[in-house]
């Protein structure tokens, strides 16, 4: 290749790649490795670029798969990388660009090869490729070191021990990506892998002591959101040299160097979106989610999940539990800030769900924050834009709200937070509204969207559960929030009447015909009546616990009182209707006494006076509405495909052929 510019299409004919994948074994001490590893190019930052690279090098990979059993060149390459990483920390401290550059290039090649190997062969075959080595004629095979475990351990050490600098950013990113690739065997199996080869290495042996440090480092990578340094700054300053770009210092490394090639055009700039994001933070979060969702081993729980479940705040002075060797401390304030800022992505929302659900220290800290709106508002935006989000993202956001509403302190405090000008809420101008009222509006909107579009009972149930948890602490509801509560009940009432009418007509029609089966209107009616019952319980809970705090809800109730007539005598609702009927009758009577043509202000004044006058013992007490989120049995059946769909769909630095994927269908992500 010399000093001439190189295109991706020329890679299959590159002499160094052909030698690596050829029939001749290459000793790990051969000067060839200096030549192979002295290439320079702009590291791919998206899956489209990597697709081009993989398509160009597939012939090289296939040749290596075929020849490696005889040459052991994959093992030699890995040993070269392992030998160079031993001095990596010192190289970073001494700003030894050349050493880090070549180590990064070695790892990049290993990662590209691994991805193809893992997608094309079983774990048993892959393990064999790591044990092949050149045999001297007449020598006997000796038990070689376990290269897979050594490589995995080296990658983890690299992530947790090498300081993150401009010159080490790329190799840190590559180490995280290679670990994801190592675990990607799950993508090529329909069933959930309970105990793969890589599982065993990561949960036992030499990798295990690094568990807490790895989780902590990945979390800090997510928290810091370090952007990728500008192209060229992490290795050498670029200089123009005729038709191609060569790094000046590289010319002294070896003869016949690779020239610079860029995916997407020489010297092309990254997109604005990619400039604004942090590939390392993104990949670190994905790796963290993959590790946390590995299935437990038969004899031990997943240590990475245990670390996530138990870490504490750096401000917490209590001693770490000796019973949990994977516990550690992290700055909760920084973590909270990052979680608030990153909720636009599925993976950040999933991390927030995991921490609130599994780590009681994080949950207690979040619920004690006085700026809870910074976390809740992004979650509400996810639900508000439900039509633009995938269903999994919506579920996670909704479950987060459900977990938060399990706490009475949260339910009280959200009505004390006053928000100004919510620009993303388009249905109505909200110049001033409490966080609690906004939360109610968004959840009700989600229910209505679900009723007309997806009709998902699970989503309905969780929305109503969140409203029910909050209902006893409803305070000073915004008039629009109060209207939407009654409007939702109106919509449910109309739906109930429609299904009832359809069932009646269907029954009449069936009397004259014995051939056609009846639609299951009874089941539809049962579902809608369950939802109506829940709405009545929510309204009742607010009236019995905080009537005097919610004149706008009483106003909306009186304005639409005719809606409730049909449910008075209905056997499913008679008990719960008693209080609602009493409130309607009591306030209607007071309004009649006040005369006709009353202004809105006068009506609200009468309601406020009546709320004080209404004896509390006249309202029947019902059990408190409290719903707690409970994770379904075998949650891995949901979470593992979900996490891998996030990895697969991530735009940063990974590409897999969709035809090879077995874990999920391409439209499930």
UniProtKB/TrEMBL annotation:
One of its GO terms (cellular component) is Golgi apparatus. Keywords: Lipoprotein, Myristate. It comes from the Eukaryota. GO terms for biological process: Golgi organization. It holds the Pfam family Dymeclin. InterPro entries: Dymeclin. Coiled coil: none annotated. Belongs to the dymeclin family. This is Dymeclin. It comes from Hypotaenidia okinawae.
């Amino acid at each position: 290749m010399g000093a001439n510019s190189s295109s991706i299409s020329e890679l299959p004919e590159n002499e160094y790649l052909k030698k690596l994948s050829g029939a001749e074994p290459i000793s790990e001490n051969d000067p060839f490795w200096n030549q192979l590893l002295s290439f320079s190019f702009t590291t791919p930052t998206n899956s489209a670029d990597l697709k081009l690279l993989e398509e160009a090098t597939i012939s090289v990979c296939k040749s290596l798969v075929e020849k490696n059993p005889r040459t052991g060149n994959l093992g030699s390459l890995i040993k070269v990388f392992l030998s160079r990483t031993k001095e990596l920390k010192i190289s970073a401290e001494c700003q030894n660009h050349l050493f880090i550059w070549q180590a990064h290039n070695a790892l990049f090649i290993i990662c590209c090869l691994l991805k193809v190997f893992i997608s094309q062969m079983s774990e048993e075959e892959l393990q064999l490729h790591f044990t092949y080595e050149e045999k001297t004629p007449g020598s006997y095979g000796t038990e070689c070191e376990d290269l897979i475990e050594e490589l995995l351990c080296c990658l983890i050490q690299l992530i947790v021990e090498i300081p993150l600098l401009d010159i080490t950013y790329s190799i840190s990113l590559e180490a995280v990506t290679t670990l994801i690739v190592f675990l990607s065997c799950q993508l090529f199996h329909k069933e959930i892998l309970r105990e793969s080869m890589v599982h065993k290495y990561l949960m036992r042996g030499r990798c295990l002591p690094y568990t807490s440090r790895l989780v902590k480092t990945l979390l800090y990578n997510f928290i810091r959101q370090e952007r990728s340094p500008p192209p060229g700054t992490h290795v050498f300053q670029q200089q123009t040299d005729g038709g191609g770009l060569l790094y000046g210092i590289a010319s002294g490394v070896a003869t016949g160097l690779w020239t610079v090639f860029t995916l997407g055009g020489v010297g092309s700039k990254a997109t604005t979106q990619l400039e604004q994001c942090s590939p390392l933070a993104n990949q670190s979060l994905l790796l963290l989610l993959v590790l946390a969702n590995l299935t437990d081993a038969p004899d031990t729980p997943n240590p990475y999940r245990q670390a996530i479940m138990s870490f504490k705040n750096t401000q917490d002075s209590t001693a770490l539990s000796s019973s949990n060797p994977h516990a550690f401390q992290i700055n909760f304030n920084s973590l909270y800030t990052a979680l608030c800022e990153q909720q636009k992505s599925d993976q950040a929302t999933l991390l927030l769900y995991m921490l609130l659900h599994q780590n009681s220290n994080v949950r207690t800290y979040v619920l004690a924050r006085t700026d809870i709106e910074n976390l809740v508002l992004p979650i509400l935006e996810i639900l508000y834009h439900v039509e633009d989000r995938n269903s999994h993202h919506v579920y996670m956001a909704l479950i987060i709200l459900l977990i938060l509403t399990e706490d009475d302190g949260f339910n009280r405090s959200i009505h004390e937070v006053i928000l100004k000008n919510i620009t993303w809420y388009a249905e109505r101008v909200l110049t001033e509204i409490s966080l609690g009222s906004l939360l109610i509006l968004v959840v009700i909107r989600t229910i209505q969207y679900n009723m007309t579009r997806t009709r998902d009972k699970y989503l309905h149930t969780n929305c109503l559960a969140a409203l029910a948890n909050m209902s006893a602490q409803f305070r000073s509801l915004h008039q629009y929030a109060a209207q939407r509560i009654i409007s939702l009940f109106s919509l449910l009432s109309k739906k109930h009447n429609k299904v009832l009418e359809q069932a009646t007509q269907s029954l009449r029609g069936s009397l004259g015909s014995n051939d056609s089966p009846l639609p299951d209107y009874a089941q539809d009616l049962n579902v809608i009546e369950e939802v109506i019952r829940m709405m009545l319980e929510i309204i009742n809970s607010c009236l019995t616990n905080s009537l005097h705090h919610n004149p706008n809800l009483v106003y909306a109730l009186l304005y639409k009182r005719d809606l409730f007539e049909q449910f008075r005598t209905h056997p499913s609702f008679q008990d719960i209707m008693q209080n609602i009927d009493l409130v309607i009758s009591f306030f209607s009577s007071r309004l009649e006494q006040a005369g006709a043509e009353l202004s809105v202000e006068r009506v609200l004044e009468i309601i406020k006076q009546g709320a004080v006058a209404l004896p509390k013992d006249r309202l029947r007490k019902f059990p408190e509405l409290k719903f707690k989120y409970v994770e379904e049995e075998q949650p891995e059946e949901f979470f593992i495909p979900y996490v891998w769909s996030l990895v697969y769909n991530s735009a940063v630095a990974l590409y897999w052929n969709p035809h090879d994927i077995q874990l999920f269908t391409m439209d499930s992500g």
